[in-house]
Amino acid sequence: MARLFGTDGVRGLANREVTASLALQLGTAAAHVVAERTQGHRPRAIVGRDPRVSGQFLSAAVIAGLASAGVDVEDLGVLPTPAVAHLTSAENVDLAVMISASHNAMPDNGIKFFARGGLKLADDIEDAIEARLSEAWNLPTGADVGHVTMNRGAAGDAYVEHLLGSIDTDLTGLRIAVDCANGAASEVGPAALRAAGADVVVINASPDGRNINEKCGSTHPEQLQAVTVASEADFGVAFDGDADRCLAVDHNGDLIDGDQIMGILAVAMNESGRLSDSTLVVTVMSNLGLTLAMREAGIRIEQTGVGDRYVLERMRAGGYDLGGEQSGHIILARHATTGDGVLTSLHLAARVAQTKRTLADLAAVMTRLPQVLENVRGVDKNRVGQDPVLAEAIAETERRLGDSGRVLLRSSGTEPLVRVMVEAATHEQAEREAALLSEVVRTQLSMG
Fold this sequence. Notes:
The chain has helices at residues 20-37, 54-68, 81-90, 123-131, 153-164, 188-195, 222-230, 258-271, 288-296, 308-318, 341-355, 359-363, 388-401, 427-444, and strands at 10-13, 44-49, 72-78, 95-99, 108-115, 148-150, 175-179, 199-203, 235-239, 246-250, 255-256, 279-283, 300-304, 322-324, 330-332, 371-377, 406-411, 417-423. The protein contains 14 helices and 18 strands. It is α/β, with parallel strands linked by helices. The model has no long low-confidence stretch (mean pLDDT 94).
């Protein structure tokens, strides 16, 4: 049987795979596991959600499960995922739950847990919760059941205050276009930037439960690109549904991805002595152009597998300050325990204000190498590292690319599929090499 928890909690189609009954069971099981680890005091939890309509019944079910099992619960309402993570630490609670499917389309939803301190649950804790989903145990009665309180504006205000405390630069004079993806940061995102002094042009900040991520936000930046140019903004930022990501747009309307944002912030932090061991942590999917640029700037790159979870693990193990993904999921470890889109936007704006340079100029710190990704379906993904003919083809491709390109093959976790990624000096070369290598994968790993 497949593991219920994925790399980012439990996620799937709401009311089909992620149901109210599952949410109730998860809340009760989590309470049981937490209670065993909090002997001597009554467990406390907080619960937040993004605006998608299914989050209403899912958060109600999780809260019911927690409270029925004796956990006092604070219902935060709609808040970004990083806000919930921060408040887990700030309020010193034992557990937090975020109801969100992040950048996914509205019909999906998910249930993500945070442990004390605002960190994602360890695998063994998730396994313990899953093992107890159907376990019968004596629920409390009378005064021992959990107490539920509502916290709306105060939680958002506390989060914005935390964000503002992370920068010491006045943003007065900057005009910033903000695409809130009709998501969880629709209020706190613009509020934080305005409180820091910026003139803010806001789009897609009217969530109705059904329009989250719909042709907007970090997954669809086209609106932001047009509005940034039309409003003569200095630059624009786009969040996703739960605001743990941030992409940007320069004054020309050109997209600035997570790699470029990390490059800008890494250089700034290294110059001021705030980049521990002069090291930036990225995934294997980050563009080679970032690695080359950081090498030129005297910054070391550490690579991990794909997923913010692995980035954070490496950052914590090495004591590093900055890491993230090309998608805009960027972790500033001195101020957050997870990716935080609004926090990232503030620090990016602060760098623009401090240097008095355009975002386009700052982003030129790196040159993105053309990157082509091909999905080869219907192949035996388990033989990727075992086939000698494929190994020789990869080596030959790498020889042709030299120092100005690279090859990466990744197996899908759920499908008979291999992803072939090639970076090269030109788009034509990347396409040609990706096509040749994909054909070798198709021929050598064929399941027929």
